[in-house]
Amino acid sequence: MPVNPEYEGRQYPPTAPYAVGREKLREFAAAVGSTHPAHHDVAVARGAGYPDVVAPPTFAVVVAQRAEAQYIEDAGAGIDFSRVVHADERFTHHRPIVAGDELVTVLHVDSLRERAGITMVSTRCEIYASDADGNPGEPVSTVRSTLAVRGEDA
After folding, report:
1. Exposure check for the chain: N or C terminus, fewer CB within 10 A?
2. Residue 131 host element (H or E)
3. Is the separation of the CB atoms in 138 and 95 below 8 Å?
């Protein structure tokens, strides 16, 4: 089944809150080679003005991918993940992500463009601090992704 063009412009509901944990941030920082002590040490992070350990800038992808899974796993979307290549990722941070954050994400399928058997899918994940009811509150980050989905004959 090809990528469904009717999904262009679709917005998915907010994800369940994602609890950002210190150890997750430390593990991610180690995995990407980020050695800045504010990613690992609470005292250093607080001394730098953060309320807790701060995430490396690319940590937002962990939260965004949870939201993108809604689209990838939506049977009607026509995405065969075995045929997906990640083409681009861009981050706009409105404030740092820190341990203790509860984040919700709203996924937007901004555009679908098909050329030569490949569909370029542009998505936007708006990440928010969760309010007391688990709804989007303060903006935290925007993650824009482009996926290349190869067709059956590509």
Report:
1. N
2. none
3. yes
